[in-house]
Amino acid sequence: MTTSSIRLVLAFAATLALASAALAAPPTKTGKTDKGSVLTDAKGMSLYTFDKDMDGKSACNGPCATNWPALKAEASDTPGDGYTIITRDDGSKQWAYKGKPLYTFAKDTKPGDVTGDGFLNGAWHLAMP
């Protein structure tokens, strides 16, 4: 193989790597609600943030996590574009957006529901894109 052939192969491999990284879908979608555009999970359920979460750490564990399920991340998921992955107290992984862990609300029953917004004296908020 010539030097120019090797460079061509390396350039092609780099292009493929960049293309696959660019194709990695974000962990959320954007949905429309009565309160405007919000981040949603893959099923279209509204996502929320919690004021008590600090420094990319979830404060919602135990019974709280039953009512506010975390937006789970998988080991193969890749953070980027404002999204990070945090480790919860139970060792599981959770998506965060702009440093804020993301949750759904158990009482939301269909896409577009926003019943958790303002819950607990305003501590829960819709996650906005």
Automatic annotation (TrEMBL):
Check the record and name the InterPro entries matching this protein. Answer: Lipoprotein_repeat, UCP029720
- Single GO BP term: alkane catabolic process
The residues forming a coiled coil are none
* Secretion signal span: 1-24
A single Pfam family it belongs to is Lipoprotein_15
Q: Keyword annotations for this protein?
A: Signal
Name of the featured protein? Lipoprotein
